[in-house]
Amino acid sequence: MNHTLIRFFAAVACSIAIPVLAADESARIRAGTNSWAQSFNAGNAGAVVALYSEDALLMPPGAPPARGTAAIKEAIAKEIAGAKKGGVTFTLGTNDEVVVGGDMAWHSGAYFIMDKAGKPVETGKYLEVWEKKNGKWRIVRDIWNSDGAGATPAAAPSPAPAAAPKKK
User: Fold this and answer.
1) Which long-range CB contacts under 8 A does 103-106 form with residues at least 24 apart?
2) Which of 1, 35, 58, 121 is most buried, judged by most C-beta within 10 A?
3) Which segments of the chain does DSSP mark as H helices, in order?
4) Rounded to an integer, what distance in angstroms lies between the CA atom of residue 81 and that of residue 62?
5) Distance separating alpha carbons of residues 148 and 124, to the nearest angstrom
6) Could you say which DSSP state residue 126 is in?
7) What is the DSSP letter of 156?
8) CA 12, CA 168: separation in Å to the nearest integer?
């Protein structure tokens, strides 16, 4: 086989493989963010913090930044305690975006704080920066903020349909 054909087939393989790899990496980032939300709602600050790099920076609204996993765990534990006390859960929106460039990626989207009835009591947005080290993606920067009073929570995910009443 001549070298021109080999180069052609290699170029075709790369043009197919790169978008597939980027899609796989985007899916990994989204899965990490979903794991964050699930662990938060379960009250597992340790599982949330496991998603951060050792030198990560958390920038929550209305609070000082937290750097490093020990400080982040303390901040997240306070957030979880407040959510449990308030009877609310954290839900991610479905209109998000992930961009991967080599070993760095960012993930942005919307979040909703839902009350026990499944109605949004707060809406906001987040931005995470992820870095891949030793084959694992970890959050290195994390910031979120509320849309504030007067924001329309109409884009919140629909609550699960209520169970049909039992017949007597």
Assistant:
1) 103/131, 103/132, 103/133, 104/129, 104/130, 104/131, 104/132, 105/25, 105/26, 105/29, 105/129, 105/130, 105/131, 105/132, 105/137, 106/130
2) 58
3) 3-41, 45-49, 69-86
4) 16
5) 8
6) E
7) S
8) 65
Compute how many other C-beta atoms are within 10 angstroms of the C-beta atom of residue 129.
Answer: 17
First to last CA, the chain: 78
> Residue 40: beta bridge partners?
none
| Pair of tokens at residue 5 | 């054909």
Distance, in Å, from the CA atom of 48 to the CA atom of 32, rounded to the nearest integer, reads 9
**1 CA to centre of own chain:** 47
Beta carbons of 121 and 113 less than 8 angstroms apart: yes
Residue 164 has pLDDT above 50, yes or no: no
| Eight-class DSSP state of 165 | P
CB–CB of 98/29 below 8 Å?
yes
Report whether CATH 3.10.450.50 matches the domain 3-155.
Answer: yes
pTM: 0.77
35, 44 Cβ separation under 8 angstroms: no
Tens of pLDDT, residue by residue over 109-141, are 999 999 999 999 999 999 999 999 999 999 999
